[in-house]
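User: Could you go from structure to sequence for me? I need the amino acid at each position, not a summary. Structure tokens:
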């Protein structure tokens, strides 16, 4: 009887030990989401993303990839690197061309590969209420005022001025 009890106990221990064995899940490329664009202007925007899983491997690079021609940009296109290894990050897209479509998405890379977020599209349009040009080595953006009487357009200030006209009698 003791032997039978001992055998049953040993068998139960073996079954429990075998049943508790966990399978190792292999590492994968990271999982990333692309954030909604913010601070959008006709020449810039803030893009970003969130690393939702590191794929059980250290993140070695993250950031934004973008293209004007490829609807699914990759690391072979334009890249803005981030410094984050986990969580959320942002990157500023600047000096964008007017009247252009940009395809943008977040990425993260680990030893097993690169994961990408969904593509977001940015369409820049020329804002006819502003004039943009370089003056004395700086990019200048002036507002445009249109006379309701004559239909003529005027800059909202003199060249080189930092003060904006607020009425017809400003000096």
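Assistant: Here is the amino acid at each position, in order:
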């Amino acid at each position: 009887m003791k032997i039978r009890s001992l055998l049953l106990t040993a068998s139960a221990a073996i079954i429990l030990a075998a049943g508790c064995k966990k399978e190792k899940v292999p590492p994968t490329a990271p999982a990333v989401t692309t954030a909604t664009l913010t601070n959008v202007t006709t020449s810039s925007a803030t893009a970003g993303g969130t690393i939702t899983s590191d794929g059980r491997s250290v993140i070695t690079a993250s950031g934004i990839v973008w293209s004007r021609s490829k609807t699914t940009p990759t690391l072979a296109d334009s890249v803005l690197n981030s410094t984050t290894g986990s969580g959320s990050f942002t990157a500023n897209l600047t000096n964008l061309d007017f009247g252009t479509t940009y395809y943008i998405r977040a990425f993260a890379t680990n030893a097993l590969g690169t994961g990408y977020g969904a593509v977001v599209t940015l369409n820049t349009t020329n804002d006819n209420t502003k004039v943009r040009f370089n003056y004395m080595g700086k990019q200048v953006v002036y507002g445009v005022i249109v006379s309701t009487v004559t239909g003529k357009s005027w800059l909202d200030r003199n060249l080189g001025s930092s003060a904006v006209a607020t009425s017809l009698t400003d000096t």
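One structural detail worth keeping in mind: DSSP finds one helix and eleven strands in the chain.
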